[in-house]
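EI: anyone free to look at a 357-residue chain?
SC: sure, send it
EI:
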Amino acid sequence: MHHSTNTVELLEDDSTEVPFCKHGPALLFRRIGTAGKNSGRPFYACSGCRNRKDCALFVWKDDLLSRPLPDSKTWDHIRKEVVPTSSHDQLYQKLRSVSKRPPSERFFCCRKLLARTELGAHRGHAVTTPVEDDDLRRPTRLINADVTNTTKAQYFFSDACVAFLCSLLEQQHFESVICVGAPTIHEHLRESCPQLPSILLDIEQTYEQFYGPSEFGWFNMFNGFFFRGSSAEKTVQRHLSLGTRCALLIDPPFGGLVDAIARTLAKMVSDAAAVGSALSIFWFFPYFNEKRIVEAMPSLRMLDFAVDYRNHVTFNESGRTKGSPVRIFTDIPPGQVKLPSDRYRYCYDCDRVIRVG
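SC: here you go
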């Protein structure tokens, strides 16, 4: 079985030995529609980077049949370069220590919370200070978003969008939330909706300093990989078992592989069902990808709500003539979703709320 993605197919893979890069296990692909001796030949490549300038991992699958996987491409080797020597809990303890100091004695640099005594190693760097209590509660205000990295593509929802989405979650009576690559939603739920427990899964390791292991998992949405291993995966399982209805909000990089994301989501839906929980999906992606998304996950339907980002030049209310092209793809029936009445109205013919103008 395989899934099609433009001229590259994402293949199913049952191999026990898979090459790794700093983004976790590689995915198996083959190129189609091209001439040459290697057309259709399966190969492993990075799950998150589509440009080999960003991640050079590339291994022909049949090469692994004739020679063992090099140590340099095993997780045991790569982990030493990627995963901090400090545990997640140890990094989170730093927040507790720093938060006891006044804002003027708190510093943030190189994606790290620092005390004054640690500034010597950051001489000449751009240091953020003071660090207010609200900054510690909402770290997306501190983190210098990496918008050029195709694996992270850190664009944050606008405040109005966050408020609407959190209101929608409450209206639908969800009992828990999983935010995959959606840190602003997680922040808002912690502050304004404590009755709705949330866990953030994100490839940005910096969040380990701001959230404990029960609230954050260092995670790659394209291959479903937890960088801290099975303990983080078990935390998500416990979170799913908090109730019978859980919402999963996922905000991938816009150039991300749809089929890889769909595979990860399908596994999470299955994991939720195994503990007696129904997992509802809210996938944020440009509307021109509707066909690809619905092919990958037929249960999803597109809502007409335009999703704005506070740090995107064009994907906001004022950046384009018709506003942001990003929409929500969900398995919640569109007719059950109430959109803001000043910009949307209910259409009885199609049983959904549509945008006015």
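EI: Residues 159-355 form a domain with the Rossmann fold fold (CATH 3.40.50.150).
SC: 👍
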